[in-house]
Design a protein that fits this description.
- The chain is α+β, with helices and mostly antiparallel strands.
- Helix content is about 15%, strand content about 45%.
- The longest helix is centred in the first third of the chain and has 25 residues.
Length: about 200
């Protein structure tokens, strides 16, 4: 009897944890931009933008173990595509699906001070997806000084067709007084598709 209870409780625990992870991973922010305008209630309440999905349908992941170093472009916070951090993903045959995009990397910013940082945007078909800000408030991925391992998640609702997901990094030189260099290594781009 003890063995049966232990197996039942263990299976129930695994099911509960697995369900919580699947549901938690599917709920992130989206709206605005290519996703449409968020509901007026979100702006008033400050609760964020819903990006909820159902059952997981597909996972695509690319891992790059080659370091990438990039510098300022002359335009502060100009996006630069991260080499190899690109995936082509299919949309549904009809309707829309939710796509949870995760990017993680070992990071460093060199040549600046505590007010400088590296930003990150995720683009689908050339358009940034949530969370992002059009200008002036770039989403920071890492900052001075030292080595870090960081991860960010983005979410988007997409319709039919083939879509391209591309990670883009940028450098923010707060007072435009430095020659910043960004460094990414051991980075992973994953796209999980939900009904």
């Amino acid at each position: 009897m003890t063995t049966h209870r232990t197996r039942t409780l263990g299976a129930l625990g695994a099911l509960t944890v697995g369900s919580a992870l699947a549901l938690g991973g599917a709920a992130l922010a989206t709206g605005g931009g290519p996703q449409g305008t968020p509901a007026p209630s979100h702006a008033k309440t400050g609760i964020g933008i819903a990006c909820d999905g159902g059952h997981s349908k597909q996972l695509k992941t690319r891992i790059m173990n080659t370091p990438w170093t990039f510098g300022e472009t002359g335009v502060n916070q100009a996006d630069q595509d991260v080499p190899g951090a690109v995936l082509n993903i299919p949309g549904p045959k009809r309707g829309t699906d939710i796509y949870l995009v995760t990017f993680s990397a070992e990071t460093q910013v060199l040549g600046g001070d505590d007010n400088d940082w590296m930003g990150l945007e995720m683009h689908v078909d050339g358009t940034p997806i949530e969370p992002y800000t059009a200008s002036g408030d770039v989403l920071a991925f890492t900052a001075q000084p030292g080595w870090n391992s960081n991860s960010m998640q983005f979410c988007v609702k997409l319709g039919k067709g083939l879509h391209t997901v591309q990670a883009s990094a940028n450098l923010s030189d707060f007072v435009d007084d430095a020659n910043l260099t960004g460094w990414l290594d051991d980075y992973t781009l994953s796209v999980q598709r939900f009904e």
